[in-house]
Amino acid sequence: MSEKFHEEIDSLKTLTVEMGHFSIHMFSDSLKALNTLDDKLAEDVYSRKRKLHDYNKKIDDEIMRILSLFQPVADDLRTITCISQMNTSFYRVGRNAKEITNFVDLLPQLSHLGIMNSICHMAECVVSMLSDCVNAFENNDADIICTFSKREEDIDNLQKTIFRESITYMMEDNKNISACIEYVMASRYLERMGDHACLMGEKIYYMIKGKNIEIN
45: closest CA among 111, 93, 117? Predict the structure, then answer.
């Protein structure tokens, strides 16, 4: 492939890393807004949806342009395929972050039940996996991805714990039902974002190693 092609790929990779950091920051702030019941921060996260959309469209457009102009093969095509998955997944991460901000208005503006501690811990695990996706992609480091199956299992177990805790709180006092439903919904969003980290991890591993793996 030409030097021009590789310059185009490098530019697209840089844009993808930039979008990844933007989406992860959006997600982290949505959880911070939820934990502190901060209306203003929630509104700020919500307003970032336009820039998120712009990233998504620009990367999509660049992928189509590079494919039509250069028709890449082998490892170059694997890179393009990986970027396409990361674009989709980080777009969903940002969109789910926007949805999480809705819970700030729905939850009682007093104090959280103890379940919020589990949600914060689950969020830290998800952010760690998403950040490692960006690092692995940027540095061609497949070793990071090999830890994902265990970490995804931990996230699934945390979601089950949050569900059980919610049931307990609801049985103790039916006034907790509304809040617990929002907690369970938030944990569901987190679990989905963990799934997106795994999808990206599979594509990143394939890009680097040329071998398919399945992250369960």
Answer: 93
